[in-house]
Amino acid sequence: MIENNGVVLVLSGPSGAGKSSLINKISDDIGAYYFSISTTTRPMREGEEEGVHYHFVSKEEFIKDIEGDNFLEHAVVHGNYYGTSLKPVRKALAEGKLVIFDIDVQGNMAIKNRLGDITTSVFITPPTLSELEKRLLDRSTDSKEVIEGRIKMAKREIQRTAEYDFLVINDDIDLAASVLRQIAKTARLKIPHDVINDFVQRWEDVD
Ligand code: 5GP
Q1: Any idea which architecture 1-32+96-207 has in CATH?
Q2: What is the pTM (predicted TM-score) of this model?
């Protein structure tokens, strides 16, 4: 058996798709994982905490981090900067963990380009656009304009679902969690190209 190496699980999908609830539901069953906390310039929402939901920084600080090459990927989403810091991700991968990202479609592409051989990507969505609208309105943490922005973005993002390995339709939360649990467990079995190449070389040497 090849020793456990670190792997990546990218989760994308509209706000209101239930990504956080799904992660909470499966978190006890997927072994050692690190949930990547992004850095953002967007203002903190009610109920959010620094270092828990995001690292909240100014635009100047963010740009400094870009210039210092401190991000694995970064993007502008809804007019604000979002980025994944490289250092903690490197550490978690070296520790053999499942590194989970909640990032947008641009971030998924960037991760695929840099870490494609160890990455599994999942697009999570409510069953229909009207169900998404309903959930966002029921949640009522955002203004009407923000909700409209999220819906517009969801319509754009859903067009890029084919860029993902898996599509999880979150209609029944228990069923969606069970599918995501299986995907996360399978994601663990991905082997980096260099490890595969080493294995193939050694395999040929064995009598
Ligand atoms: P929110 O402001 O609702 O927390 O997130 C807005 C969007 O930004 C979501 O689609 C979320 O997945 C995405 N996002 C959060 N962090 C990052 C990040 O580090 N990189 C990228 N590319 N997208 C992110």
Answers
A1: 3-Layer(aba) Sandwich (3.40)
A2: 0.93
Among 3.30.420.40, 3.40.50.720, 3.30.63.10, 3.30.70.1350, name the CATH number for the domain at 37-95.
3.30.63.10
Please give the pLDDT value at position 45. Answer: 87
Task: Say if CB 55 and CB 41 are below 8 A apart.
Answer: no
Q: Which residue's CA is minimally distant from atom 23 of ligand 1? A: 103
Contact indicator for 164, 183 with CB cutoff of 8 Å = no
Distance (angstroms) between ligand 1 centre and the Cα of 69 equals 19
Token pair 């009610």 is at which residue?
Answer: 46
In tens, the pLDDT along 42-71 reads 999 888 999 999 999 999 999 999 999 999
Q: Is 123 in the pocket of ligand 1 (CB under 6 A)?
A: no
Q: How many A from CA of 80 to the centre of ligand 1?
A: 9
Q: Is residue 82 within 6 Å of ligand 1 at its C-beta?
A: yes
The residue nearest atom 4 of ligand 1, judged by CA position, is: 15
Vertex 101, ends 114 and 79: CA angle to 5°?
90
Residue 139 is predicted with a pLDDT of 79
